[in-house]
Design goal:
Elements: H1 2-15, H2 19-32, H3 37-49, H4 53-73, H5 78-101, H6 106-141, H7 146-158, H8 162-175, H9 180-197
Helix pairs in contact: 1-2, 2-3, 3-4, 3-5, 4-5, 5-6, 6-7, 7-8, 7-9, 8-9
């Protein structure tokens, strides 16, 4: 409950354009919930308002790191994917402000390039999730549409759901052991998992 109150007060002060007070409650919320990416994101937004770029960036990066961890466990969760996009967009905004404040710092340009690439990746994840939804609809309407199932498996693998993809391909190959596309994709995924597991 203390966390909810701190977040609500931070948002209220922020809405009244009292950034110092907003930040005090945002800091309190962040310390009460160090592993809540949404709270870290809010803190980053409020730090940005007070032009404390270093703290804003730390909070945004912590949010990204926490969300990436959550997406490894559940890659298809829409809320986490949207929050990741928001956190990456915040990183870009902070770094653009930092660049404007100190246009001669080469490290800021490098960090901005990395943040923009990550923001593009999180945008792409959201598009892939939407594509997956349509693919699932296609398979629901015709479970024998193996081409769609193989396509879905590739999407799921790209999103980080290797096991989901393998389970889907297992179903395709159980129906049609000679499906070359499914067999090829299965081998590709297994080879990549072996490579990741190698010391």
């Amino acid at each position: 409950r203390g966390l909810e109150i701190a977040v609500e007060l931070a948002i209220a002060y922020n809405g009244r354009d009292l950034p110092k007070e907003a930040l005090r409650y945002a800091d309190a919320a962040a310390s009460l919930a160090p592993n809540a990416p949404g709270v870290q994101l809010k803190q980053g937004q409020m730090n940005l308002k007070t032009q404390d770029y270093a703290s804003a960036l730390r909070a945004a990066e912590k949010s990204v790191s926490l969300l990436n961890g959550q997406l490894r466990a559940d890659p298809f969760k829409p809320d986490h994917n949207l929050q990741l996009k928001e956190a990456n967009t915040l990183r870009v905004t902070i770094l653009e402000a930092q660049r404007a404040a100190d246009p001669d710092d080469a490290n800021t340009y490098f960090a901005l390039a990395v943040a923009m690439r990550d923001a593009a990746d999180s945008e792409r994840r959201i598009s892939l999730l939407k594509a997956r939804e349509y693919g699932l609809e296609g398979v629901n309407k015709d479970s024998k549409l193996s081409e769609c199932s193989v396509f879905l498996a590739r999407l799921e693998w790209e999103l980080g759901g290797a096991q989901d993809a393998l389970d889907r391909l297992k179903g395709v190959l159980a129906d049609d052991a000679n499906n070359a596309d499914a067999a090829r994709l299965r081998e590709e995924i297994l080879a990549s998992l072996r490579q990741q597991a190698a010391p």
